[in-house]
Queue: 2 jobs
Job 1
Amino acid sequence: MITSMTGFGRGDASGNGISVTVELKSVNSRYLDISLRLPQSIQDRELDIKEMLQQHVERGKVNVSVRVDKSETGEPEITFNKKLVAGYKQLLNDLRETADIKEPITLRTLLEFNDIFESREDDPETKKQIWQLTQEAVKEAAEELKAMRMQEGSQLEEDLNQRIDHIEEMLNIVMDKVDGRSQEIKEDLIARVNDLIDNDKIDPDRLEMEVAVLVDKMDITEEIVRTQSHIKFFREAVNNDNSVGRRLNFLSQEINREINTIGSKANDSEISQYIVKAKESLEQIREQVQNVE
């Protein structure tokens, strides 16, 4: 079963008043590209989280968001800088004495300085708890993301199989129409050339050879056989459990190249109609495989 690169996963873990929520969003990308937005307490765990995700995801752009809620612990997220408060107090006292102001310095006066507040740094034990909860939440989110990507992959697989079946159906029709076509083209060309020139002034052997070369250039049997071979490998890749996005992309390009050649060499309006229908399905396939992992 193929896997889509689009998906979403969410994981939650909590303990001792601390809650951690992890959200994963993935879209298609040529390689595995993981972007993280982490709280300060686990900034140094970026590589660990990437390694955890690489066990579940092989391709795609993955955005990781980790939120930590410690409101249940009752501890404020901020504290104040004691040295800076003392410095402001000294500054205000000097100013008050210089200006001969009798009014005392109050708490309201110090609260005018916003930079006295700063984020509270977690102690080692709290950091350890947050990291343990983060690992649990990441694992849950990654499993949910993988399940969603596989579910969408099954829909992609069904769609790709239907479209590749349609291309094969069109090729089979074209194949039936080209059966014996070379001989017909050859006879028609000889007859037309003979009508235009004097039979006494032309070498029959040379005419036979030139016509054979021309007929060979118009023969599309080889391209049809190669396309059928690509379709066979395409089906095998779709039913493969490994990461096959790049292989499907390559095969769809090869099928596109062969179909274009068939259309240009056939020089037949009826065959061209079936080629156009096959190309319509192929364009849909080329868009879909961009989202296959």
Job 2
Amino acid sequence: MKHFPLKLSLFLNYFLFASLLNSVGTVIFQVQRNFGVSPAGASVLEACKDLSIAVTSFFVAAWLLRIGYKRAMLGALGVIGVVCAAMPFLASFWATKLLFVATGVCFGVMKVSVFATLGLVAREPHEHASLMSFLESCFMLGVLAAYFLFSAFVDDAAPASTAWFRVYFVLAGVAFVAAALLWSVPVDESAVHGSAAACGGGLADMLRLALSPLVLVFTASVFIYVLTEQAIMSWLPTFNHTVLHLPAVLSVQMASILAGSTAAGRFAAGWLLRKLSWATVLTVCLAAAAALVLVALPLAGAAHGPITGWRTAPLAAFIFPLIGVFLAPIYPTLNSLVLSSLDPSRHAAMAGLIVIGSALGGTCGSLITGRVFQAYGGQTAFYLSLVPIGLLGACVLVIRWMKRPVAQ
């Protein structure tokens, strides 16, 4: 496979940061048990990572061509490795805030660099879409692995135990291995340095892109998608524990169904998008996601016996996370549509806009859900996901209409 070592390195980098970023749901759950933090107070962890992603992406996208993609990724891996190695010694709520700020900063650098590097190894739109879908699948595998990795360190019998912080020794080791692999792989960035000067590069190019009507709609769609995904993903362990009354470890483990179904959905989307139009796939997926919310959430109130493991868990704990299958194709498809329509020298700027939209969407989704969760309960909080799902459907129709004259 052409560029295989580089692709493997990108997938490992994405896998690591997926594990760190999406452990926020587990960490939100654990800090409530360890330190008595309220749901609204714990939801600030999502803002720590997402706002730092947004701010970092804004500046990194403007300067990335000067820094260099490989150098930027190596720096991000080194910093996050050191922070993870320090976490078991700092075990506290403020340390988790520091961790997610560092994770957000490093992921902002990593994601913009990875998206821009994809343009160097996949020049054709269908190849780019396939690689993007596979990359996002690896991201979800990282999310899935995190649920089981973190749950292995959680002590059900001792809610105040901070022994779970030792999981960060493992993640620090992965970061240093990923840095060594990337350091050993050559990355040819000469194709973008020449054309960068022609288009102006940096902040000015990013602002010009942001003013394009099509890019505005794409960025808004990404914002709404991540708002929906993070609202569910960050609060699913808490929903499992407080609404379905699952034990703590099982609450974290069963939240992995969402990550697994999302990974499966993205692998399936890679095949479906070769057979059907992107608009048809996304429209059907959004309709199915809304239908699943309306079917699964009423089951959460059904009576059930004592829950001791996966076999005795209520039906809602299995069905609702399957929403990941239908939400999965939306994010990589939208990103690939807009990136593959631009010159590779503009991918860093566009990736910056995507990451900023994603980060702000994640922050808003978690903060809103945390407050609704506290005021009205978990079922109401998850019913509200129908609103952004409807807005995404409208965005798909608008993008299809805007791209039609170009296609003709």
